[in-house]
Amino acid sequence: MKKRTLVSWSSGKDSAWALYELRQFPDIEVVGLVTTVNQAYDRVAMHAVRSDLLRCQADAVGLPLHVLPIPYPCSNAQYEAIMGGFVAEIRGQGVECMAFGDLYLEGVRRYREDRLKETGIAPVFPLWQKPTDQLIEQMLAGGLRAWISCVDPKHLAPEFVGRRLDRALLDELPDKVDPCGENGEFHTFAVDGPMFRRPVDVRVGEIVERDGFVFADLIPETSAGDALEYR
């Protein structure tokens, strides 16, 4: 029997590709996505994606979305209490696994494993330790399309935010920047790929700097006339 699995969904390329990989696993049934949303801004934490755009994305991949509002600022104790309550709830609904798009940050993996220990929910890491230079090539070749939604200007020039993640952008990345942004250099919003039933059309709105990061406000595109489509 397949294991009912939720994907920890950041809205970015790694969680999207993790979904794609999981759908190839014969023993896994992905039954939904779960995302924490900043209550103050109604946006995905760090990625700064609007919650209405997040819902468009979930609909486009064909899965129900569990949105967990978190306060801003949010302490570790508050975060763990919210997540702990949710994990207990979904375990009661028959969910057996939670999948994450982490690549190689050992501390992050250990934290997730420790928090899920003895909950009855098993952590799954379908992308773990895949070389990021090879993985990003696989993503692009496989049809994944994404926008840069957030940049850490301490590691990457602000001019990269609001751009499409494509070959031209990868060629411009400084050598010290991980091509998947695994060290937090940048975050993305996935809009199309083999995990989508249809693309999510967006346009780039205001570019803002907040809390030491630079964000692009990605807006759902309802008017075909001025869409910045990524097809």
Largest sheet, if any? 6 strands, mixed
Q: What average pLDDT do the residues reach?
A: 94
CATH superfamily of the largest domain: HUPs
- Strand % is 25-35%
Class derived from helix and strand content: alpha/beta
Under CATH at level 1, the class of the largest domain stands as: Alpha Beta
From the alpha carbons, calculate the radius of gyration and give it in angstroms: 17 Å
Overall tally of domains? 2
Tell me the number of helical segments per DSSP (H or I, 4 or more residues long). Answer: 6
Helix content class? 25-40%
Q: How many DSSP E strands?
A: 10
Spatial gap, N to C terminus: 37 Å
- The CATH topology of the largest domain comes to Rossmann fold
Name of the CATH architecture of the largest domain: 3-Layer(aba) Sandwich
- Low-confidence stretches are 223-231
N-to-C SSE series?
EHEEHEHEHEHEHEEE
Shape, per Cα inertia axes = globular
